[in-house]
Amino acid sequence: MMRGFVPFSAAVLLCSVMVTAAGQAPTPPAAGTAAPAQGGLPADWLPPAPKNLKLLPKDIQPKELLAIMQGFSQSMGVRCVYCHVAGPDPSDMSAYNFESDRKEHKEATREMMKYTDAVNQSFPASVGDEPKAGEQRVTCYTCHQGQRHPPTKKPEPKPAAAAKPPA
Ligand code: HEC
Ligand code: HEC
After folding, report:
1. Rounded to the nearest whole angstrom, what is the distance from the C-alpha of residue 61 to the centroid of ligand 1?
2. For residue 107, what are the domain limits?
3. What angle do CA 112, 66, 87 make, to 5 degrees?
């Protein structure tokens, strides 16, 4: 079981890298999605040593843990408080109880981490380019695209545009 989770953490790191790159694009994602998750943190704040990791390596460095958490946040367009128990002011990082499993989104995320790992393990080897060592093809961002609920329906065609002949 544990074998899969090491590549997984690399995958989430990759996903945070991808989102960072997306944030630098000329048209940033809609306000209130990806950017604030990172923007809300004090400049060199690092999380406390973890006490309740069930999937990520228990000896993970705080910096790497934070990068993975920012990857989750940006992939879903949420802040830490979406998954973690905060104090009265969710921007006060010292008042969080990160180890608590009380929020159902945290537990759902553990399930989604395992699911993402399984998707990558069963990805057909003959399709697409081989991923670089430590990288994964499918990340949280692949599906979520900065949203809590990934889009599942194709966009409605715009009537005017649809009527125009192809350029
Ligand atoms: C989408 C859900 C989600 C978001 C958003 C999220 N986390 Fe987490 N976080 C988790 C999960 C799940 C774990 C436990 C992972 C495990 O069991 O290996 C965790 C664990 C942690 C831990 C370790 C706690 C302990 O003592 O074991 C810290 C610290 C942490 N997160 C900080 C953050 C910070 C800071 C943010 C915002 C930048 C954040 N998280 C955003 C889901 C999330
Ligand atoms: C293959 C696509 C896919 C991947 C990969 C994926 N998700 Fe999801 N996720 C979904 C879908 C679809 C839902 C259901 C959304 C809904 O109910 O509309 C969902 C739901 C969730 C929810 C519950 C949302 C809610 O508000 O109830 C969380 C939390 C979540 N995903 C986190 C993650 C995280 C973190 C990752 C990466 C470790 C991830 N997901 C990877 C497709 C995916």
Report:
1. 13
2. 2-163
3. 90
Express each pLDDT in 13-54 by its tens digit. 444 333 333 333 333 344 434 344 445 788 899 999 999 999
| Cβ of 103 below 6 Å from ligand 1 | no
What's the predicted TM-score (pTM) here?
0.83
C-alpha 7/C-alpha 146 separation (Å) is: 22
Residue 131 clears pLDDT 90, i.e. is over it = no
Residue 112 CA to residue 141 CA, distance in Å, equals: 12
**Cβ distance 34 to 23 under 8 Å?**
yes
**Mean pLDDT over all residues of the chain?**
81
| Ligand 1 atom nearest to CA at 51 | 26
Q: Which of 54, 149, 152 to mutate to test the pocket of ligand 2 (most atoms within 8 A of CB)?
A: 149
Q: Is ligand 1 within 6 A of the CB of residue 57? A: no
Number of domains in the chain: 1
Residues with CB under 6 A from ligand 2: 72, 76, 105, 108-109, 112-113, 116, 119, 138, 140, 142-144, 148-150
Any idea how long the chain is?
A: 167
